[in-house]
Design brief:
With 137 residues, the protein is an all-alpha fold. 72% of the residues lie in helices and 0% in strands. Helix 1 (8-29) packs across helix 5 and helix 4 (77-98) packs antiparallel against helix 5.
Length: 137
């Protein structure tokens, strides 16, 4: 497993990324009330939050598949690029709402920790793409 990722550093980064996705998938699918309370969304938001979780779950499953497959991340560039693009879009949305460019009429629920986590996901993804470039492309 370690040899598939080149060294322990990239394997650990991949696992941190996968655990972060797992956490958000868990919140969306099995614990939507946590998000409803945190962002003051109301009980009618339960279904859309769980629906969002159904988009996260396949990404987690593919990540686990990459982790345990014989060739590791070899040829799986789209998985890593997709993750970075999603993270960049989330950070841009966060900044847009924080600076009242998007949904300026709504109360902002942006938490600084959420912004930092989004940026960390972007950085992890970029480091993985650069570090595993010889394997994933």
């Amino acid at each position: 497993m370690i040899e598939n990722f080149g060294n322990t550093f990239y394997l650990i980064l991949f696992l941190v990324n996968l655990l972060g996705l797992f956490y958000y998938g868990y919140l969306c699918i099995l614990s939507p009330h946590t998000l409803i309370t945190k962002y003051n969304l109301g009980e009618r938001a339960r279904f859309p939050i769980r629906l969002l979780g159904t988009f996260i779950l396949p990404i987690i499953i593919i990540g686990i598949w990459i982790l345990f497959r014989e060739n590791g991340p070899e040829g799986c560039w789209i998985y890593f690029v997709f993750g970075v693009l999603v993270s960049i879009c989330q950070v841009l949305l966060d900044w847009g709402q924080r600076f009242k460019i998007i949904d300026s009429d709504l109360e902002s629920f942006n938490d600084t920790a959420d912004s930092i986590i989004g940026i960390v996901f972007v950085v992890i993804g970029i480091v993985l793409i650069n570090g595993l470039a010889d394997k994933i492309y």
